[in-house]
Design a protein that fits this description.
By secondary structure, this protein is α+β, with helices and mostly antiparallel strands. The protein has three helices and five strands. Helix content is about 40%, strand content about 30%.
């Protein structure tokens, strides 16, 4: 499970964007259970997202499909990064810096 901070200014409409971006980035409608939104796509058997405790972070839980081919893995990773960019407001480099500071 991973927790991602949300960029200032991206908190407005965060929950709606978190849900809508799953459909936009992966082309799959999420199922909802107790505040967690879950999909299955490509190299991910399960991708589950939810709001953090204070509503200002994104909590992501994933389960990989170890039998996926390289093409599927690359496509899934690209879509996952695009999803995180859209929801958090940070690009990959900025997210990495935030994670290093948090450690």
């Amino acid at each position: 499970m991973q927790e991602y901070p949300i960029k200032r200014g991206f908190k407005q409409g965060f929950e709606e964007r978190m849900i809508a971006s799953l459909s936009e980035c992966f082309g799959v409608e999420p199922s909802e259970a107790t505040g967690r939104y879950t999909i299955s796509y490509g190299a991910l058997k399960m991708l589950s997202v939810s709001l953090g405790p204070k509503g200002n972070t994104l909590i992501v839980d994933t389960e990989s499909d170890r039998d996926a081919d390289d093409e599927t893995i690359l496509d899934t990773n690209r879509r996952f990064r695009k999803y995180l960019d859209a929801v958090t407001g940070y690009n990959s480099k900025e997210r990495a810096k935030k994670m290093q500071k948090a450690s």
